[in-house]
Every structure is written in C-alpha cells, then in structure tokens.
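Board notes (copied after class):
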Amino acid sequence: MAAQPCKECRRRPKAAGRHRCVTCQLRHEPIGEQVAAAQRRLAMVPEEMRVKRSKTIMAHAPEGQAFCAGCQSFRDLVDFGKGATQCRACSSAKSHAAMIEKTYGLTPDEYEALFRAQGGRCA
C-alpha cells in the first residue's frame, strides 16, 4: 500500500506518525532546528563540488523548487524570500553570524565555543 501524501504539499509521502512530510515538518520547527538541518545538508556536499547559484542549476530544478546557494540543495519555493538565493534558514544563519561579528567582534566558531562553555547562558 502506498504512503498517503503530505497534507501540506501533497507531493511527498507523509512521515511515519505525522501528517506532513519531513520537508514540510521541518518548516514548522524552530529556526535553530532549520539551521542545523541546513548545516547537515551542506556537510554532505564535498567542498570541491559546491557551486554558486547559476542558470544551469536553475534549469534543472524540480518543479516548485529552487537551489539554495547556502546549503547547496534544492528547497521548496516557500522556503525562500522574494528574490533570495538562499533559503530562510541559511539567510538567518548568515545574518546571525554577521550580527555576532559586528556586535562582539567574534567569529561564529569563537561565539559557538563561548556559548557552549557558558552553558548557553550569560557569564
């Protein structure tokens, strides 16, 4: 018996025990979870195979999807802002990193190490 379609996108089969597919479910998670998923997707692409958004890639995009230059994967169009080349999760991570650098003068790696050392709390 075929899996029932996702109640949101109606294109992919819904996840076990859920009403939505994995992609649509992730869209409803907190932005931190979405950023972590984007980082996992990026980690699966070897450094030498990473590309910027191009017309060639966009020509091969599946229906209703676009290529994210941040996580190097095809994402649903609803995951992008108007005219954006990165999905919302990648844009959020990029703007957060810029704000941390501007405000505290720390790189994202230094900030993450400090955040973990302090247990996620103010020193």
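Comment from the instructor: Residues 35 and 89 are 5 Å apart (CA to CA). The first strand starts at residue 65 and ends at 68.
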